[in-house]
Design goal:
Shape: globular
Structural class: mainly beta
Number of helices: 0
Radius of gyration: 16 Å
Strand content: 25-35%
Number of strands: 9
Helix content: under 10%
Length: 166
Amino acid sequence: MKRQLLALFFPLVLGAGAAGQSYLVHPPQYKNLEGESSTSYPFYYHATNAAYRQMIYQQVHDNLSKTPLPLKGIAFRRDVWQLYTWPAWSADVELSVSHSPQGITSTTLSRTFAANMGKDATVVIAKKKVRFPPTVGTGPFPRPFAFNLPFDTGKIFLYKGGGRSL
């Protein structure tokens, strides 16, 4: 059984290739602040029930940038209120990126997973086991982006800009 979660909106880092800029935090207002919500998705690693450890996850980001950006990776950070230490862990990951079809935003997602994917969907991380580092339950506020997913060698997704959803 696979679980499906259609949309959550929390800070993440996109590996961008703009001159003089190595990353972009989205939404930008959370670069140095904790987000307003959190979730253990898509990395619900500590579940004991195998069904909860398998899922297809989809996230939409609105108005990412007015200008085109070459995207080279994505990263997530822990919620500051998670006070326990996580040991190193791994997950099978496959990541596809696309521009959302016209009319699809983080608030207008279809319940049909495929309807939210654009025709330019690109597999930027082929399915593989990814190992994530241990993280401690104390430290800076907000937490650093410790869960990094660089795209596979040679894989870059060109975000077209214009405030489109991704």
